[in-house]
């Protein structure tokens, strides 16, 4: 019975880091070019990000070879910055845009880069472990309308509910200090 329980946990954990069916991670991925600060342009909303605007993600190297992830966003309801720190590791090879990320102890979720500006690394399209997780990230607080159109079209063709897409605002009347003050 214990062996069945361990097998079930292993299957559940590995399912959480697998790419959703039909979604292919980008190849030719270069982590060093991906590191740094990204702005969240659009997302499918979840409880851990609900009410957050001016959201950023910052990626840097960890001493163990993994990636340090710092997510920040401004809660208008609380009038305060929120921050979460996580860690990420490649699921396959380092040239495939498929990582597993954890913000909660030993539990990991998929981080699948399925769209990327390979030339300049200015924007990326991200999926989580299923089609209820979706993000458009960019190096700037806004992107050309064509990038948003391409994101919507590609996400819709992959089965995401783009009707629920939340467009993140970065220009806010924020009075609780800057994003750099969130610690």
From TrEMBL:
Homodimer. It is found in: Cell outer membrane. One of its GO terms (biological process) is response to stress. Involved in the storage or transport of lipids necessary for membrane maintenance under stressful conditions. Displays a binding preference for lysophospholipids. It comes from Mariprofundus erugo. Keywords: Cell outer membrane, Lipid-binding, Lipoprotein, Membrane, Palmitate, Signal. Belongs to the calycin superfamily. Lipocalin family. Residues 1-18 form the signal peptide. GO terms for molecular function: lipid binding. This is Outer membrane lipoprotein Blc. Pfam families: Lipocalin_2 (PF08212). GO terms for cellular component: cell outer membrane. It is a lipid-anchor.
């Amino acid at each position: 019975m214990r062996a069945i329980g361990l097998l079930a946990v292993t299957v559940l954990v590995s399912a959480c880091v697998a790419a959703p069916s039909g979604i292919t991670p980008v190849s030719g991925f270069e982590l060093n070019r991906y590191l740094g600060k990204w702005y969240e342009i659009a997302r499918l909303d979840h409880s851990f990000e609900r009410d957050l605007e001016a959201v950023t993600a910052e990626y840097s190297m960890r001493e163990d070879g993994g990636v340090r992830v710092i997510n920040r966003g401004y809660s208008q309801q609380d009038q305060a910055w929120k921050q979460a720190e996580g860690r990420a590791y490649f699921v396959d090879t380092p040239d495939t845009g498929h990582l597993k990320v954890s913000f909660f102890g030993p539990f990991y979720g998929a981080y699948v880069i399925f769209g990327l500006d390979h030339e300049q690394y200015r924007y990326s399209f991200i999926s989580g472990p299923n089609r209820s997780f979706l993000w458009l990230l960019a190096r700037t607080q806004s992107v050309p309308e064509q990038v948003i159109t391409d994101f919507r079209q590609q996400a819709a063709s992959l089965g995401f509910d783009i009707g629920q897409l939340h467009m993140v605002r970065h220009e806010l009347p924020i009075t609780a200090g800057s994003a750099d003050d969130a610690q």
